[in-house]
């Protein structure tokens, strides 16, 4: 049995740049050549009309599934497309091995439409704790990274989320109604109040990056899939923000959260949004 915590710390000290290179190569080989060039047969639907998957998603995930465990022997991959094919593989997030949590194309709808609002998300976790994350938006030329306890960077420069301007409306990205239950819809209605400006969310990864950059104030999301949240939540934390579920607890990537939940630029904003979600229910 490997000592996972020490192994991860040593790995990040020595080979974090190799992870960045893997993301760039996956995008260069499998994602960007298909952007704005997708053929009809390269786009499929999974569980519904808004749940798209493309050859770029599948092939980029296969590339990362081969590359990342080779960088950290003993680690495993939980990827969105592999879990769709075999839901039981999601359990590795709760297992004993270090796990790479991969969303090969976060924002597939935007990708299919030829828009630049998509990214590749990778998080390295163990025992339910995210130790490092990478958010790569190749069409925008942005790479954000975070290491637990060591801060967040955007293209090598420190990220600081800051706090909303006193008295300003809170800019909150909200789950698409198609991905919410009736109970969650009622909770989200709590955000339609004075002092809050809710809007539909885009790519979850880019919404988290916007919070870490101080360009948005908070999210209100209603689903738990770790590949959408693990990387961004650590990025927000290390930039100075935080996250809370509707029950007032930190979000857990292992599941069992009271939804919806929020990530926000600072603790006061997180408490305010979580309170509104609770009041709305």
TrEMBL record:
Record's keyword terms, sorted: Hydrolase, Magnesium, Metal-binding
Catalysed reaction equations from the record: a myo-inositol phosphate + H2O = myo-inositol + phosphate
Matching SUPFAM superfamilies: Carbohydrate phosphatase
InterPro entries: Inositol_monoP_metal-BS, Inositol_monophosphatase-like, Inositol_monophosphatase_CS
EC identifiers of the protein: 3.1.3.25
Protein name (database record): inositol-phosphate phosphatase
């Amino acid at each position: 049995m490997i000592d996972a915590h020490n192994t991860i710390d040593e790995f990040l000290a020595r080979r974090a740049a190799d992870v960045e290179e893997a993301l760039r190569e996956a995008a260069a080989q499998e994602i960007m050549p298909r952007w704005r060039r997708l053929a009809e047969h390269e786009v499929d639907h999974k569980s519904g009309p808004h749940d798209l998957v493309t050859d770029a998603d599948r092939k980029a995930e296969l590339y990362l599934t081969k590359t990342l465990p080779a960088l950290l022997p003993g680690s495993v991959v939980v990827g969105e497309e592999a879990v769709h094919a075999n839901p039981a593989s999601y359990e590795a997030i709760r297992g004993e091995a270090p796990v790479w949590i991969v969303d090969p194309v976060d924002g597939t709808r935007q990708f299919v439409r030829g828009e630049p609002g998509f990214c590749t998300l990778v998080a390295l976790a163990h025992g339910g704790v995210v130790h490092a994350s990478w958010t790569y938006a190749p069409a925008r030329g942005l790479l954000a990274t975070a290491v637990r306890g060591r801060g967040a960077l955007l293209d090598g420069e420190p990220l600081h989320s800051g706090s909303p301007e006193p008295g300003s409306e809170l800019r909150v990205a909200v789950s698409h109604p198609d991905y919410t239950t009736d109970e969650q819809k009622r909770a989200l209605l709590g955000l339609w109040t004075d002092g809050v400006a809710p809007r539909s969310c885009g790519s979850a990864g880019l919404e988290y990056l916007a919070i870490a950059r101080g360009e948005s104030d908070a999210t209100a999301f209603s689903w738990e899939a770790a590949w959408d949240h693990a990387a961004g939540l650590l990025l927000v934390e290390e930039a100075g923000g935080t996250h809370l579920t509707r029950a007032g607890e930190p979000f857990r990537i292992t599941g069992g959260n009271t939804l919806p939940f929020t990530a926000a630029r600072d603790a006061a904003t997180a408490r305010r949004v979580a309170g509104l979600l609770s009041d709305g229910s």
